[in-house]
Amino acid sequence: MQISFTLNGRPTTVDVEPATLVAELLREQLNLTGTHIGCDTSQCGACVVHLDGLPVKSCTLLAPALDGATLLTIEGLQGAPGSNLMHPMQEAFREHHGLQCGFCTPGMLMTAVALAAEKPDLTEAEVRHGLEGNICRCTGYQNIVVSVMAGAAAMNAAKGE
Amino acid sequence: MGNVIGIGAAPKRKEDQRFLTGRGNYVSDIKRPGMAAGVFVRSPHGHAVLRLARYPAAGASRTPRVFR
């Protein structure tokens, strides 16, 4: 079947088997391999993307659900629209060492950006609760939480400008 | 800590940019022409004696695009 949606700001039309998962469509058909599949069972969160602005695990979503929707993946996350700048959340992860191997990072970032966008004055407890669906096997989450707090603050500051 | 060099320094990692922007290129991200996936079939029996191995496994050769 043919589906049309907005992918990282660009109108996109693809032919898909109806049983294709969004994570598979992105990685195998559209070559956007920044969205990772860590578990294939919706536990790890490495595949989180934004569907119409909300964070979803793309390994648990069927491609036909994209028809008419707006999808943002890690490849589309950026600072000012159209710029080469990194998003404040990406900058915060780099600054505060919120990653080691980087495999969980795209999902962490997408979840974190959605958390911060939904609630400007995030507490550390809310960040930890919000990241429950994202598993990292390298770190003890300490630096990830610090990064998300800093990234959320930077997003707020950018909004106020 | 800003000007510390060596032990105690907190240098920025060179690899972070690509990990943060979805351009990490992990093994499962790599695609090559004609690339195949490997599957190991292991014995379900501990310390069993192998008397006869049929190769390829029954059914595998009838599946399209299965290599020997």
TrEMBL record, chain A:
GO terms for molecular function: 2 iron, 2 sulfur cluster binding; metal ion binding; oxidoreductase activity. InterPro entries: 2Fe-2S-bd, 2Fe-2S-bd_dom_sf, 2Fe-2S_ferredoxin-like_sf, 2Fe-2S_ferredoxin-type, Beta-grasp_dom_sf, Diverse_Oxidoreductases. Pfam families: Fer2 (PF00111), Fer2_2 (PF01799). Keywords: 2Fe-2S, Iron, Iron-sulfur, Metal-binding, Oxidoreductase. PROSITE patterns: 2FE2S_FER_2. CDD domains: fer2. Residues 1-77 form the 2Fe-2S ferredoxin-type domain. This is (2Fe-2S)-binding protein. It comes from Bradyrhizobium frederickii. The lineage of its organism: Bacteria, Pseudomonadati, Pseudomonadota, Alphaproteobacteria, Hyphomicrobiales.
